[in-house]
């Protein structure tokens, strides 16, 4: 799946909409759009609309949209026909057809924040060169979502104190593929990779933690899988 961010800023009664999309092969698309709008909540929503229009145009499906506006999330849930009483919305079907999920994160984690606020050129990948089949050769490669609280755990446990939300989510999916499934109870799964444990509930990573031991057999299986993964991707 891809992971995308949206944000908006208001300056001189103009709204600067920004979105960033990170794909499976680490390609990045960035867009900044200027519209006549002075309401910040509406601008935040319009940024999401612009992203969805982009995804529809290029038929880019299966991904996550993250943004930092609780108000927009609330309005989207509250009223499917109108938002903020004056903007008609019709993206519910698009979200479903494109197999998208939305998630709210703090502003400081929103990669699109700087893009919408700063008038600075930021390069993008060439769309035709993006490899959405990057992991297709890897059998059963996971595409789990990540609960926000897991980011802090990931930063601490893996000593990646500046890791962004998408980096952590993508990294954990890779680690899950490398790991051993040590517990599988209904919708709850626990994976072991060296001295770390990753807990998944349904389709979402909800917790990671360390244990005080490493099983030698697990250690060598992880190493073999890492070599196998590299070969599969390079084919």
Automatic annotation (TrEMBL):
Top-level taxon in the UniProt lineage: Bacteria
GO molecular function: nucleic acid binding
SUPFAM superfamilies per UniProt: Ribonuclease H-like
Protein name: Uncharacterized protein
Organism, scientific name: Niallia taxi
């Amino acid at each position: 799946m891809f992971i995308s961010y949206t944000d908006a800023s208001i300056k001189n009664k103009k709204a600067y909409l920004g979105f960033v999309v990170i794909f499976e092969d680490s390609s990045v698309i960035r867009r900044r759009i200027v519209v006549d709008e002075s309401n910040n909540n509406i601008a935040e929503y319009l940024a999401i609309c612009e992203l969805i229009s982009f995804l529809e145009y290029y038929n880019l499906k299966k991904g996550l949209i993250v943004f930092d506006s609780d108000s927009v999330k609330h309005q989207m849930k509250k009223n499917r026909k109108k938002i903020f009483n004056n903007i008609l919305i019709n993206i519910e079907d698009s979200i479903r057809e494109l197999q998208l999920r939305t998630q709210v994160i703090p502003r400081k984690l929103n990669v699109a924040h700087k893009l919408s606020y700063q008038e600075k050129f930021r390069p993008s990948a060439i769309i035709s060169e993006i490899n959405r089949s990057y992991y297709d050769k890897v059998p059963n490669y996971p595409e789990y979502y990540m609960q926000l609280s897991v980011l802090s755990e990931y930063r601490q446990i893996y000593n990646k104190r500046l890791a962004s939300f998408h980096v952590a989510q993508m990294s954990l999916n890779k680690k899950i593929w490398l790991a051993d499934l040590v517990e599988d109870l209904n919708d709850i799964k626990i994976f072991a990779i060296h001295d770390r444990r990753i807990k998944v509930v349904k389709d979402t990573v909800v917790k990671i933690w360390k244990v005080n031991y490493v099983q030698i057999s697990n250690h060598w299986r992880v190493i073999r899988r890492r070599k196998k993964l590299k070969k599969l991707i390079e084919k």
